[in-house]
Amino acid sequence: MKCYTVNGTGLDGLRCEESHALGAPGPGDVLVHVCAVSLNYRDLMVADGRYGGVQTPPIVACSDMAGEVLACGLGVTEFQVGDRVLNAPFRCWPAGTMTAAWAKTFVGGNGVDGVLAEQIVYPAAALVKVPEHFTFLEGATLTIAGLTAWAAVITHGKARPGDWVLVHGTGGVSTFALQIARMIGARTIVSTAHVDKAETAKREFGVSACVDYTDDTWPEQIAKITDGRGVDVVVEVAGGELLGPSIRSCAYGGRVSLVGVLDGVESKVNVRDLLAHQVTVRGIFMESTAELRALVHACEVAQMRPFISRVFAFDHVLQAYKYLESQQHVGKVVITVRSG
Predict the structure, then answer these.
(1) Residue 339 confidence (pLDDT)
(2) Are 140 and 223 members of one domain?
(3) C-alpha angle 278-282-287 in degrees, rounded to nearest 5
(4) DSSP class of 249
(5) Tens of pLDDT along 106-119?
(6) pLDDT value, residue 39
(7) Angle 239-146-209 (CA atoms, 0-180°, nearest 5)?
(8) Are residues 140 and 231 located together in one domain of the fold?
(9) Dihedral sign of CA atoms 291, 295, 296, 298 in order
(10) What is the pLDDT of residues 219-275, one digit of tens each?
């Protein structure tokens, strides 16, 4: 069986290795033939040591997959051979609020093997059936990007029809957030420094307006776009220097879903902006298997499909990582492991 491993020393440490064949799954587990894996910014951080440091021994890379059930362990009743499944990002976070023990089961980092392999064994309780209208490539995009966007906009962002939702960037989480906001009837604004990406956002996701986050006046521009009201929800993927202006752009009672640290882990925040408009900042660390099931159901009802930028073959994983690193993409970058 082939798999790709990372060791935290950079992309030079990405290796395709031969591993032993997996045996029959144990009680409560499922053997899955992986068909597709999608990449996230976190995968770059794990590869170069910014997320968990050096991995000793190396770990199997990546956290998001979709595949076909090959065998079920004792006690597994919700799946059968041939079912199409995708994985939750944590081997154990069934529902509710995260615990310290569950946090340690996040796959693809901090010593926990991921899913960039021809086969994996995964707990049945942390698997969800792929939406019926999805391909395997599309199913592989929901684990982190789709679920994080769902948590940012719906679970904790509590967006409602007619709300204004500000989304930074056009990567995987951001494009999902735009689609989910549109699905519920919210209005969206994208911040991007790229004219072509702004046009794509308007064309593909029905974005109402775009602002350039490199222009220091963008919060004032958002005030004009929203007739002085401000935005109800911010999907903040950058952190760093953008967090303060994001808070300043909020309406009364606004919610900032802090998703990522593309702009760094240190931010300067004016506390008066939080107090005056009663803004809530919530850290988003994906979500539970229960919320992933809710997202899958919503995709099926709305017939929503992920936006995939580019697909790479299993033999071209390094090129896939480098393409993600180049930030040329809009939406998701996916790897085909096996056709299906």
Answers:
(1) 58
(2) no
(3) 145
(4) T
(5) 999 999 999 999 99
(6) 98
(7) 60
(8) no
(9) positive
(10) 999 999 999 999 999 999 988 888 999 999 999 999 999 998 776 777 888 898 889
Global pTM?
A: 0.95
Answer yes or no: are the C-beta atoms of 168 and 191 closer than 8 Å: yes
> Does 74 share its domain with 182?
no
Q: Hunting for tokens 């995708």 — which residue is that?
A: 86
Last residue of a domain, one of 264, 283, 302: 283
The pair of three-digit structure tokens given for residue 134, joined into one six-digit string: 């999805």
Residue bearing tokens 């440490």? 13
Residue 152 lies in a domain: no
CATH at residue 329: 3.90.180.10
Residues of the chain with pLDDT under 70: 263, 339-340
Q: Where would I find the H helices in the chain? A: 41-47, 100-103, 136-139, 147-150, 172-183, 195-205, 218-225, 243-248, 271-276, 289-302, 317-326
CA angle, 23 as apex, 134 and 15 as ends, to 5°?
A: 70
pLDDT of residue 21: 85
Show the tokens assigned to 3: 């798999």
Expressed as residue numbers, the domain containing 252 is 157-283
N residues, the chain = 340
| Helices 289-302 and 172-183, packing angle to 10 deg | 60
In a domain, 151, yes or no: no
> 10 and 94 share a domain?
yes
Under DSSP, the state recorded for 232 is: E
Domain count, the chain: 2
